[in-house]
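Tokens help. One example:
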Amino acid sequence: MASGDKCPRCDGLLIEIDHYGDRLIGCIKCNRWSWPGSDKPFMALPEDDLQTLNNLSDARHRAEDTKP
């Protein structure tokens, strides 16, 4: 599994995050995460961490919106 690949469950884009000093790659929608270079997800993030990621993602998309 590598950042930029597609999630095998939902076909969403995989992202890389820093989770308390550990680099993880996974899918926000499915909440499945693994170490870079691993081919199998091994963990789900706690709901609070997942909500924070969703909030950051939403804010980034709003900032990138260039519609008049």
User: Anything to note?
Assistant: The chain has a mean pLDDT of 81.
